[in-house]
Write a structure and sequence with these properties.
Strand content: 15-25%
Distance between the termini: 28 Å
Helix content: 10-25%
CATH superfamily: Aminotransferase class 4, branched-chain amino acid transferase, N-terminal domain
CATH architecture: 2-Layer Sandwich
Radius of gyration: 17 Å
Order of helices and strands: EEHHEE
Shape: globular
CATH class: Alpha Beta
CATH topology: D-amino Acid Aminotransferase, Chain A, domain 1
Number of domains: 1
Structural class: alpha+beta
Number of helices: 2
Largest sheet: 2 strands, antiparallel
Strand order of the largest sheet: 1-2
Amino acid sequence: AYRKQDGRILLFRPVGNALRLQVGVERMCMPSPTVEQFVEAVKDTVLANQRWVPPAIKGFLYIRALLMGSGPVLGLAPSPEYTFLIYVSPVGNYFKEGLAPINLIVENELHRATPGGTRGVKTIGNKTG
């Protein structure tokens, strides 16, 4: 979420992020919130934390959605229940120059995810150090 010069707070691609979450949780065999539930949860969380949205051009409010198994079972089986939550954190501009264009190289030969695995899905299991 970011603040405009006139003080309004805008969200960046909330529907696209909801759809991305749905793809990921489907791949992980988990139930998914609807797009409407996701967007409403993001709006509610940002509204509750609007004082933490930096001034225009100074940064943004980072938003992270999380869906996790939260039942009383630990094992190789679907969880009997799931918890969906949104958390936020104010952040400054990533680059000290601000939002200036950058040069980069796009790699299209190598993949960070293994074939048949979680593919391009954001999961805790495909985060490596």
